[in-house]
């Protein structure tokens, strides 16, 4: 053999670099292979036989199968991933909206209890309490403003 063949093994640092390079390339190859397999199953427009064919092609001839898949369907692979990310984000946002809207809304009983506490502290008069109680019982009570910490109570100009 010629001297170029032994060059990497004559220098330990070059040998370590080549070993790390091959290891990195194999890890990247498996990442790419798994992404292709996941994309095969993710694609809703591809039928069962199409999925089976692409999967068999990628398993029987892994290097050729993955490269052909990337050439033939690589552009749509990114679009499908973006669509899935958007769908997940929309589902998450819908879940947050649903959870936030069903979080303990204040009922009229809670509003009356809060008004009673305010009156007991002496922050409002009996007349203001009566008017606020009528507003709460009629359905025109404090609403969301009362949930943020301050109860909207009509005042007599004090």
What does this protein structure show overall?
By secondary structure, the protein is mainly α. Helix content is 75%, strand content 0%. It is built from seven helices and no strands. It has helices at 7-10, 12-42, 48-60, 62-101, 108-121, 126-138, 144-147. The radius of gyration is 34 Å and the shape is elongated. The termini are far apart. Mean pLDDT is 80; it is low at 143-151.
Number of helices: 7
User: Which secondary-structure class do the elements indicate?
Assistant: mainly alpha
Beta-strand proportion: under 5%
Would you count the extended β strands for me? 0
Measured as a percent range, the helix fraction is over 70%
Oligomer: single chain
The low-confidence runs, each spanning 5 or more residues with pLDDT under 50, are 143-151
Mean pLDDT across the residues is 80
At a glance:
The protein is built from 7 helices and no strands. With 158 residues, it is mainly α.
Secondary structure elements and pairings:
Layout: H1 7-10, H2 12-42, H3 48-60, H4 62-101, H5 108-121, H6 126-138, H7 144-147
Helix pairs in contact: 2-3, 2-4, 3-4, 5-6
State the main characteristics:
0% strand, elongated, 158 residues, 7 helices, mainly alpha
């Amino acid at each position: 053999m010629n001297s170029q063949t032994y060059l990497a093994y004559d220098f330990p640092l070059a040998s370590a670099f080549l070993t790390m390079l091959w290891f990195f390339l194999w890890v990247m190859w498996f990442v790419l292979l798994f992404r292709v397999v996941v994309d095969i199953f993710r694609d809703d427009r591809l039928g069962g036989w199409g999925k089976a064919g692409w999967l068999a092609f990628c398993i029987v001839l892994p290097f050729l199968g993955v490269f052909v898949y990337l050439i033939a369907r690589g552009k749509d692979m990114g679009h499908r991933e973006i669509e899935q990310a958007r769908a997940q984000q929309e589902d998450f946002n819908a879940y947050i909206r649903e959870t936030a809207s069903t979080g303990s809304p204040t009922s009229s009983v809670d509003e009356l209890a809060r008004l009673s506490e305010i009156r007991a502290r002496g922050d409002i008069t009996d007349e203001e309490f009566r008017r606020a109680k009528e507003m709460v019982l009629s359905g025109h009570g404090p609403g969301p403003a009362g949930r943020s910490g301050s109860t909207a109570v009509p005042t007599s100009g004090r």
